[in-house]
Design goal:
heterodimer; A: mainly alpha; 2 helices; elongated; B: Alpha-Beta Plaits; Calcium-transporting ATPase, cytoplasmic transduction domain A; seven-stranded mixed beta sheet; 27 strands
Chain lengths: 50, 773
């Protein structure tokens, strides 16, 4: 059972990273325009210049 | 006349030299639109940033004050092909957004904690039936506590706040048992962990919070979405006023920034943007949106006119006066205040259930504890069992049962073109048994239409094409008859009287009888006989004279909707402020025998109060300013999007488009929703009937609690989703022979930009791909 000593903190750390990541995206207003985001990837003009 | 546009009231300045404005944009439908708008604006000198929110159809623009201004940006957008409307961000909307975000944060924290605690709990459950040592189990319980306690302290706040508010008001709502249950479960678990017990309930408490927050967040997000949509529509509808500046110069300003004392110019054919007193000019005003009366009234200097009236004849200069200053508005305000007070006493189904449920739960738990004590169990065991009862009965399913249905039904109604203003509208719509309609603008369309049946089509075409050059509202109705909408050249308009031109080498006139040189004698012989409900417009070409009646037209499907509603055993009534001879033919065509005409707002309220006193639950459908108090007095109310602003704000729901079918849809969908709400409550009761005896006997383990709670929550949510798949037009089809309902996008161009756009909005998902350039 000694394996728990590093497995449990690792699991918690991974989960916590996910939570912090979500909070970060929320703070950056990434959920404000859910219908627009999938459309913004359609235009290709940003790669036309190279 | 080139008139300056003034939007300075809508511009915000966060730092010196930088300005920001939010605009609601019409006609955005695809990825190409985003690019066109953003690129187009960023090319303008001085624009720092332009970002279009596609979900909300709102554009945020930031620019350097020294180089450009808001007016130039709006003009540039118009040149790209999009009409933009200034949008004043409301305080309520900002609070709304803040609340939604906060709930999402709570949801994220609860979700994170629930997943991790469950990981530990499953290990403990597995370990309990194999060879887990007590030390390992304690470690896992303490780890669970470490995750669950801070997470719960954060995520319980929305419930704690509501529960505390309810307790202070000496009431019970769902949040009281939820909060008590969660806090007790956590407290008990800490005690159990400290005494090395086998069971801890950290996972139950945190999972409960997670499920409830899901429901609460969805509810809030749906409400926010419909509110945003409604305020976009309001800004599309917002009218502009021509305001006189200090030196007598005219500027175009949004009507919402008008101040009492401002002088404004209203051209013939324009809507009056604010209440006021006529300072100069003489005209006829169509006040049908205000009073329900369809015949235009002549007004003179010193007369009071109301926002929403249409100026039919000459140009008017109006001095804006404060809202409520005029006698009619004062009366309406007073009636409104009284009616609204009476209305707030209705109790929601969820709260009724909570009032019944919470005491039962608490008493059952207390009785369980006492019974175990009497049966000789230890104090500790009795308390543990009592708390287990509380946890298992915690109204996870009940608290989800109603909001889940409401969220899905609100979305479904939204897609049928109905926007809910109040949260309990669905429940109230489901239980009505009487429908009271206003006539003008509700059963009939806001604009009249020409009755061309008795007119020579060739002559009609000429009259209609000539009408294209007129500003008069009656002419606008006639102009829609034109098969080829090509105006004639060299048309001269005499404001308020008529238009004349040379057609095929001969003089043609369109307008009032005297304008066309028609004497009363000819008028009597040429006019269609005995129809008081219509206004006449005369056309003279060479020696041919024709009188074309402009009639109030029923909304499409009005007769089928009335039939379908009657088949639902609903009693229909018409209460109108218009004259009896205008109401009677409409009532006859709709087969509604119960109608009254010439009513004042107070009389409308009295009739509705009388119906309510007889135990009737009344739905009022109306659009005029004079209907606003009646809408507030009725059990529940609906109004079309073309309604006066004050009236719309009073209605529980607003419907889009020309057709009357949304009224039928609203009732059908809400009845279906109520059925599902009751089913869900029944499901929750059945769940408790199984779970409570197990809990009372002290046989509940955390595993059973987890399975039972998530199982019932999922079941209830799935049941709620059934509203989504309910077809709305099936019943209407039984009553109409025409096979299909009109497409939402097939709204006539005359309806005005607001509805046209809302139709685009609704069909946007389907048309989006075709529109990509």
């Amino acid at each position: 059972m000694n394996v728990l000593i590093y497995l449990v903190p690792m699991a918690l750390l991974l989960g916590f990273t996910g939570l912090v990541g979500f909070m970060w995206t929320l703070k950056n207003n990434q959920y404000d325009d859910l219908d627009g985001a999938p459309l913004r990837i359609l235009p290709d003009d940003d790669i036309a210049g190279d | 006349m080139i008139e300056a546009l003034d939007l300075s009231n809508f511009v915000e300045r966060s730092e010196p030299g930088r300005a920001h404005i939010t605009l609601a944009v019409e006609g955005v439908g695809c990825a190409g639109c985003i690019r066109k708008i953003e690129d187009g604006l960023q090319k303008l000198p001085g624009v720092i940033d332009a970002r279009l929110n596609f979900t909300q159809r709102r554009l945020a623009v930031e620019w350097r004050d020294s180089e450009t201004n808001a007016e130039r940006i709006v003009v540039a957008l118009e040149r790209i092909g999009y009409r933009a409307h200034p949008f004043a961000p409301e305080r309520i909307a900002a609070e709304d957004q803040h609340e939604t975000k906060w709930l999402l944060k709570c949801l994220a924290v609860a979700g994170f904690a629930a997943m991790n605690v469950m990981l530990l709990s499953v290990s403990v459950w597995a370990g309990n039936s194999s060879d887990m040592t007590q030390e390992t189990r304690d470690l896992f319980h303490w780890l669970s506590a470490l995750i669950a306690l801070p997470a719960a302290a954060y995520a319980v706040q929305p419930f704690l706040r509501n529960a505390w508010r309810a307790i202070r008001a000496r009431q019970l709502n769902m949040d009281v048992p939820i909060t008590v249950g969660v806090l007790l479960a956590l407290g008990l678990s800490i005690y159990e962990t400290a005494t090395h017990a086998v069971h801890a309930y950290f996972d139950s408490a945190i999972m409960l919070l997670f499920f409830l927050l899901c429901g609460r967040y969805l509810d809030q997000a749906m409400r926010q979405k419909t509110r945003q949509f409604a305020s976009n529509l309001a800004s599309f509808k917002a009218e502009f006023a021509h305001r006189f500046g200090p030196r007598g110069e005219l500027t175009r300003v949004p009507a919402s920034v008008l101040q009492p004392g401002d002088r404004i110019l209203v051209q013939p054919g324009e809507a009056i943007p604010a209440d006021g007193i006529i300072f100069d000019g003489r005209s006829e005003v169509d006040q049908s949106l205000v009073t329900g009366e369809t015949v235009p009234q002549s007004v003179d200097q010193g007369a009071i006119v109301y926002a929403g009236g249409v100026n039919c004849a000459g140009a008017l200069t109006i001095e804006v006066c404060a809202a409520g200053k005029s006698t009619l508005l004062e009366e309406i305000e007073r009636l409104l205040a009284k009616a609204t007070e009476a209305k707030s006493r209705t109790v929601r189904l969820a709260d009724r259930a909570a009032r019944l449920y919470a005491p039962v739960v608490h008493i059952t738990a207390a009785l369980t504890g006492i019974a175990w004590l009497l049966a000789g169990a230890s104090f500790h065991d009795a308390i543990v069992t009592a708390v287990a009862v509380l946890i298992i009965t915690c109204p996870c399913a009940i608290a989800l049962a109603i909001p889940a249905v409401q969220v899905v039904a609100t979305g479904r109604l939204f897609r049928s073109g109905i926007i809910l203003n109040s949260g309990d509208a669905i429940e109230k719509l489901a239980e009505i048994d009487t429908i009271v309609f206003d006539k003008t603008g509700t059963l009939t369309l806001p604009e009249g239409s020409a009755d061309a049946s008795s007119v020579d089509p060739d002559l009609l075409e000429r009259a209609a094409r000539l009408a294209l050059s007129s500003h008069h509202p009656l002419a606008a109705a006639l102009a829609r008859c034109a098969r080829e909408p090509v105006p004639y050249a060299g048309v001269i308009e005499q404001a308020g009287r008529g238009v004349h031109a040379i057609i095929d080498g001969q003089e043609a006139q369109l307008g009032s009888a005297p304008f066309c040189g028609i004497t009363e004698q000819i008028q009597r012989t040429s006019a269609p006989s005995g129809d008081a409900a219509s206004s006449l417009i005369f056309f003279r070409h060479a020696d041919r004279i024709v009188a074309i009646p402009i009639r109030q037209q029923l909304r499409p499907e009005a007769t089928t909707v009335a039939q379908a509603l009657a088949a639902y055993k609903l009693e229909l009534m018409i209460l109108s402020g218009d004259r009896p001879e205008a109401v009677e033919p409409i009532a006859r065509r709709l087969n509604i025998s119960n109608w009254q005409a010439g009513l004042t707002p107070a009389e409308k309220i009295a009739i509705i109060e009388g119906l309510k006193a007889k135990g009737r639950r009344v739905l009022m459908v109306g659009d005029g300013l004079n209907d606003a108090p009646a809408l507030a007095a009725a059990t529940v109310s609906l109004s079309p999007i073309s309604a006066a602003r004050l009236t719309q704000a009073r209605a529980d729901a607003v419907f889009l488009g020309e057709s009357l079918t949304p009224v039928l849809d609203a009732i059908k969908l809400s009845r279906h929703a109520r059925l599902l709400m009751r089913q869900n409550l029944a499901l929750a009761v059945v769940y408790n009937a199984f779970a409570v005896p197990i809990a009372v006997m002290g046989m509940i383990t955390p595993l059973i609690a987890a399975v039972a709670m998530s199982g019932s929550s999922i079941l209830v949510t799935l049941n709620a989703l059934r509203v989504r798949f309910r077809g709305t037009d099936s019943l209407l089809r039984e009553f109409s022979n025409s096979s299909a309902l009109p497409e939402p996008s097939a709204v006539r161009p005359s309806i005005g930009a607001a509805e046209k756009n809302s139709a685009n909005y609704q069909t946007a998902p389907q048309t989006r791909l075709e529109c990509v350039q």
